[in-house]
Specification:
- Keywords: Signal.
- This protein has helices spanning 29-49, 55-59, 124-132; strands spanning 6-14, 65-76, 81-92, 95-107, 113-119.
- By secondary structure, the protein is an alpha+beta fold.
- The chain has one domain: Nuclear Transport Factor 2, Chain: A (Roll), CATH 3.10.450.
- It has a five-stranded antiparallel beta sheet with strand order 1-5-4-3-2.
- The two termini are 31 Å apart.
- Residues 1-5 and 8-19 have low confidence and may be disordered.
């Protein structure tokens, strides 16, 4: 991800033992759940910082998006890590905005939690919606 501003978030749920083990792939529901959590957290932080008269309308942004074109760019077997790329499209008030972004999926070897490191540009369309209302 070569110097691009990154953020990292830790999944709350651990991988279930016996589900194949190892790091989930780029399109795995565990990896996508971490991205989902990150999006919802960012929307909530932005709503809290910017006292909108109707914050509920902006919370919809965290519920109305689609991650598509998920691609595995690289798998590093020695550290069991996936380098991924995808497109995220946000929908808000009959508008939509998309951006391509990269992310990496790892597993914390000490506790089995899924770790996803993602490019902050994944969140840019959200901020655009906030600015234009």
């Amino acid at each position: 991800m070569n110097g691009t501003k990154l953020s990292c978030i830790l999944a709350i749920s651990t991988l279930l033992a016996g589900c194949g083990g190892g790091t989930p792939t780029c399109a795995d529901s565990d990896a996508l759940a971490v991205l989902d959590e990150a999006i919802k957290n960012e929307v909530e932080k932005f709503v809290a910082r910017n006292r909108f008269s109707t914050p509920e309308q902006f919370r919809e942004i965290g519920e109305s998006y689609e991650i598509s074109n998920i691609r595995t760019l690289e798998y590093n077997e020695s550290v069991d890590s996936y380098q991924c790329d995808a497109t995220i499209t946000y929908y808000y008030k009959e508008r939509q905005q998309s951006v391509d972004f990269s992310y990496r999926v790892d597993t914390d070897q000490s506790d089995g939690n899924v770790l996803v490191e993602y490019q902050m540009k994944m969140l840019k369309p959200i901020m655009s919606f906030f600015m234009t209302g």
